[in-house]
Write a structure and sequence with these properties.
The complex is a heterodimer. Chain A is of the alpha+beta class. Chain A folds into three domains: 79 residues, Orthogonal Bundle (Helix Hairpins); 108 residues, Cupredoxins -  blue copper proteins (Immunoglobulin-like, Sandwich), CATH 2.60.40.420; 91 residues, Cytochrome Bc1 Complex, Chain D, domain 2 (Orthogonal Bundle), CATH 1.10.760.10. In chain A, 33% of the residues lie in helices and 23% in strands. Chain A contains six helices and 13 strands. In chain A, the strands form three sheets. In chain A, strands 3-2-1-5-8 form a five-stranded mixed β-sheet, with no helix packed on it. In chain A, strands 4-10-9-6-7 form a five-stranded mixed β-sheet. In chain A, a hairpin with a 4-residue loop joins strand 6 and strand 7. The longest helix of chain A has 33 residues. The two termini of chain A are 56 Å apart. By secondary structure, chain B is mainly alpha-helical. Chain B has a single domain, classed as Cytochrome c oxidase-like, subunit I domain (Cytochrome C Oxidase, Chain A, Up-down Bundle). In chain B, helix 9 runs antiparallel to helix 10. The two termini of chain B are 17 Å apart. Classes of the chains: A alpha+beta, B mainly alpha.
Chain lengths: 305, 537
């Protein structure tokens, strides 16, 4: 078997954690123990008067300036080397593009396939190119110790490798508004063969497949704010929305309307036109939705009863 | 050194004026100091209530008491209140004003009217910030960092809040100018630079940071307003702007601002520990020098907030290096404080308990800062609960506990009455325990990967969040006991006379409460601030 030419990001970062935490714990215990010892030993009931007036010691000052300097410079260097490991993408990495928007993830593979979860093969390095369509987001996988901000208009990437199959949390780490904490998905690490099957199974991306409104609503992040069970959210619940009589605010005035297909369509393509009273005008415009996708979403919302 | 017949005496009554006007138009540094104390501590309590609400919301996954939008507004207002309305102006405004002019042997600060203007600017800015919460489209939801492009897009009332902070900035600049001039020009005869108290030294270092760094915040805030109101596109990549430029501008101020927050606290600790050890402070010159070193080097480390931002790797290298350099003077201070205790005669009264717990909490905060300074480890914990735990250790465990130490140490001097010792110790113990439960669990949560500013979280984080919330209640109970004890004691407690703790600095040589112009005749200083033997003779 070929020896891999890289060390995983987790194996790069963890020794740095252990070194800094280890040194810190020793240092802290030394400080705290000395302090407590002095307080007990020289408490006023036992030492009614100070027994020394020593106010400085140049030797000590040099020692406790020099030793911490050496220690922190070691930490700095070790930390920097680890950081280089995180930044150097191994050759032959699988490229995936992560598109972040308020408030959902979408991952696109080189053959055009896309998904709301990040599927990766075990044992193969993956380079994730980071794209934001609106504000700054953050790509964070705790299990692999990687994080990178996703800045609109900027090229950023991270790499990692999953050592064993499993499902790992993927968070948005950079605060991005109301739905920030629901911008959570997973990395699904599959054995290489299974991954190939998954990649081929979908064929030429989702345009070709029959559009599934529910899946679309999940992937585009609609369900982060609009519940399916009538519970209150950031936006109106989809449950029983069709045919409902609602008061909307538009252009400063309010009026009553009955929710119909035209209203749903307009709300998806131009979210700020008519806002249901009591909600904030914060829904992002999903400019990359195709007309077919809009219709699929409308059809799906109609069906939520 | 006697308390006059008047219930308080001293500056409370010797001008013959009374009523609200005698306070809000007073140019007496002690009255202005108390105005700052009441205002800043009032905002601190507002911030505490908001913080408790945040922790209550995080007690269980999903919605507990508020929705995501409310949570985002509450953490933003919590941050803005604590940072801009309490911790930045708190120490210099309250204790700097109360104590520093007396410590240098002056009758007042160099520009008493400017000092009053600073307070009015602060109050004006604070009122504008408060107004922003209840007008427009509701309180800002950007976080206290106002990061673009989000802050340029959100419909909430960001511009007005930012304008309020802008006004408060001028207050800080003027206070800084006033203090520097006072320390240079108004020192009494014999008050050489080597005889300044370490609290005064720390305020001196702080004042330079206030003057040099605050204008950059002001510019940054104006640019946010321009971005929102005029659509200048300076930070919009679609129009040739750059979101990272905003982050640089913001942190060029906001990192040095962290030292505005912590330096005076370190100074107060350096004054308190020798008094309750009856021993001169160890390494006076090193502590004074390290304050200046922190202020200088601390101005060059802002980029460590941006290791994951997409900033170049070269910049990460430089900022990580400089960050570790700043750790050294902080370590020097800790070693010198602990050495001051050696062969002393240590009395564990309330101010000393708070001061010693400052050393513990600040050390934990500082050491976890090393994790954040090292580039590889910062990547994992950046933007997680770990960071929140870290800066609360430094800012609350550090500056907050030092503020409580200063309240117990100096306020009896100015009120002429004192609190009861036993409730003060109980309050301290509860706060110390609650604090560690609350914030240590947040560090663990961050290591496990829970991001910050999360209203909701995955079930795997539930147990630790519950523990953390319980810690916040213990801390709150301690805080309430401390507050009731202080208010009751300072208003109606036992008279506080003379110099019961044996302080050797000038504020302990004048009557209690101090008269309006502090000194009947200009003092001549003959010994250092921690020379306790000279004082007895």
């Amino acid at each position: 078997m070929n020896q891999p030419l890289f060390i995983s990001t987790t194996e790069t970062v963890d020794p740095v954690f252990i070194f800094i935490f280890g040194a810190s714990i020793v240092l802290f215990l030394a400080i705290a123990a000395t302090m407590v010892f002095f307080v007990v030993r020289y408490r006023r009931s036992r030492a009614p008067e100070p027994t020394s007036a020593v106010a400085s010691n140049i030797g000590l000052e040099i020692v406790w300036t020099a030793l911490p300097t050496l220690l922190v410079l070691t930490m700095f260097w070790y930390g920097w080397q680890g950081y280089l490991g995180l930044r150097t993408v191994p050759e032959g990495a699988l490229e995936v593009t992560a598109t972040a928007r308020m408030w959902s993830w979408n991952f696109t593979y080189t053959d055009g396939r896309n998904s709301a979860k990040l599927y990766v093969p075990v044992g193969k390095p993956v380079q994730v190119n980071l794209v934001s369509t609106d504000v700054i987001h953050g790509f964070f996988i705790p299990a692999f110790r990687v994080k990178r901000d996703i800045v609109p208009g900027m090229k950023n990437q991270v790499w990692f490798v999953a050592d064993r199959p499993g499902s790992y949390d993927l968070f948005c780490s950079s605060y991005c508004g109301t739905g920030h904490s629901s911008m959570v998905t997973t990395v699904e690490a599959l054995p290489a063969k299974q991954f190939e099957e998954w990649l081929e199974h979908g064929g030429g991306g989702e345009e070709a497949a029959k559009l599934d409104g529910r899946k679309l609503a999940q992937e585009k992040g609609c369900l982060g704010c609009h519940s399916l069970d009538g519970s209150p959210g950031v936006g109106p619940s989809f449950k029983g929305l069709m045919g409902q009589k609602v008061t909307v605010v538009s252009g400063g005035g309010t009026r009553e309307i009955i929710v119909d297909e035209a209203y749903l369509r307009k709300s998806i393509t131009d979210p700020h036109a008519d806002i249901v009273k009591g909600f904030q005008p914060i829904m992002p415009t999903l400019s990359d939705l195709s007309p077919q996708q809009v219709e699929a979403l409308v059809e799906f919302i109609e069906g939520v009863k | 050194m006697t308390v006059s017949d008047h219930p308080r005496g001293g500056f409370w009554s010797d001008t013959g004026r009374s009523g609200l006007g005698s306070w809000i138009f007073s140019t007496d540094h002690k009255r202005i100091g108390l105005l700052y104390l009441f205002a800043t501590f009032g905002f601190f309590l507002v911030g505490v209530v908001l913080g408790l609400l945040l922790k209550f919301e995080l007690m269980t996954p999903g919605r507990t008491i508020m929705g995501a939008e409310a949570y985002n507004a509450v953490f933003t207002v919590h941050g803005v209140t604590m940072i801009f309305l309490f911790i930045l102006p708190g120490f210099p405004g309250a204790f700097g004003n109360l104590v520093m002019p007396i410590q240098v042997g002056a009758r007042d600060v160099a520009f008493p009217r400017l000092n009053l203007l600073s307070w009015w600017l602060y109050m004006g800015g604070a009122l504008i910030v408060l107004t922003s919460l209840f007008t427009g489209n509701g309180p800002p939801d950007t976080g206290w960092t106002f990061y673009v492009p989000f802050s340029a897009r959100t419909g909430t009332n960001v511009s007005l809040a930012v304008f309020g902070v802008f006004i408060i900035g001028f207050s800080a600049i003027l206070t800084g100018l006033n203090f520097i001039t006072t320390i240079h020009r108004l020192r009494a005869e014999g008050m050489t630079w080597g005889r300044l108290t370490l609290f005064t030294w720390s305020l001196y270092a702080t004042a330079w940071v206030q003057i040099l760094a605050t204008p950059i915040l002001a510019i940054t805030l104006v640019l946010i307003m321009a971005e929102r109101m005029l659509g200048t596109g300076l930070f919009d990549p679609g129009r040739g702007g750059d979101p990272l430029m905003y982050q640089h501008l913001f942190w060029i101020y906001s990192h040095p601002a962290v030292y505005i927050m912590i330096l005076p606290a370190m100074g107060a600790i350096s004054d308190i520990i020798p008094v309750f050890s009856r021993k001169p402070v160890f390494g006076y010159k090193m502590i004074a020098f390290s304050s200046i070193a922190i202020a200088a080097a601390g101005s060059l480390v802002w980029g460590h907030h941006m290791f994951t931002s997409g900033m170049s790797d070269r910049a990460v290298l430089v900022f990580s290096f400089l960050t570790f350099i700043v750790a050294i003077p902080s370590a020097i201070k800790v070693f010198n404080w602990v050495s001051t205790l050696y062969k002393g005669s240590i009395s564990l009264e309330a101010p000393m308990l708070f001061a010693l717990s400052f050393i513990i909490l600040f050390s934990i905060g500082g050491l976890t800062g090393l994790i954040l300074g090292a580039a590889a480890t910062d990547v994992h914990v950046h933007d997680t609960q770990f960071v929140v735990g870290h800066f609360h250790y430094v800012m609350f465990g550090g500056t907050g506990f030092a503020f409580f130490a200063a309240m117990h140490y100096w306020l009896p001097k100015f009120f002429g009455r004192r609190y009861r010792e036993k409730p003060a110790v109980i309050a301290w113990a509860l706060m110390f325990i609650g604090f560690n439960i609350l914030y240590f669990t947040m560090k663990v949560l961050g290591m496990k990967g829970m991001p910050r500013r999360y209203y909701d979280y995955l079930p795997e984080f539930a147990t630790l969040n519950l523990v953390s919330t319980i810690g916040s209640w213990i801390l709150a109970v301690g805080l309430v006991i401390m507050l009731v004890n202080l208010i009751r004691g300072l208003l109606r407690g036992e008279p506080f006379e003379g110099n019961p703790w044996g302080g050797a600095t000038l504020e302990w040589s004048i009557p209690t409460p101090p008269p309006t112009e502090n000194f009947a005749r200009e003092p001549v200083v003959t010994h250092g601030p921690y020379d306790f033997t000279a004082m007895k003779e």
